[in-house]
Amino acid sequence: MRVRGVRREATMARPTDSADADPQVVRAAEPFDTFYTREYPQMVSVVYALTGQRWAAEELAQEAFIRAYRSWETVSGYDKPGAWLRRVTINLARSHLRRRITEAKAMALVALRQRTPLETHPDNAEELWAEVRGLPRRQRESFVLHYVDGLSIGEIAEVLEVAETTVKTHLQRGRDSVLRGLGEERWES
Description:
Elements: E1 2-3, E2 6-7, H1 32-51, H2 54-70, H3 72-75, H4 81-114, H5 124-133, H6 137-147, H7 153-160, H8 164-188
Antiparallel strand pairs: 1-2
Helix pairs in contact: 1-2, 1-4, 2-4, 4-7, 5-8, 6-8, 7-8
């Protein structure tokens, strides 16, 4: 995996005998279609939780798998190709969100001229995920990888390439913000 021009062998090392213990670890001989079948539903869930758009989740997950397929000879040799896939998926979701923000700013300028109020009464789940999508980027990504993808603190740290204590901090702050946001919504209603 290339990160700022440096090959990151340490986090994506060669296969080991621990492949059966971790679902992200695959044997070098695993066919791509097996990897795809196992990982695709989770990648769609991760992107959906980050973006709130099912079509975007499916499209971005597919793009991540296309990249994995093109480099499968290399990716399948990593100790944890699932971690590599999650990194690519999150990067694609970030880019998508940046584009959406730019588009939203342009649409806001148009909407200011119309002054038509939008009716939004999300159900509880949508309210929760709206709060999650409002978190700072690293808190949001940690939250989604933990609660949607079911990754451990260590696995999230590996995917996001940060320390485990940083992940714990992001998770705690994210939970606190979401609970505050939901609590305020409930008291205002």
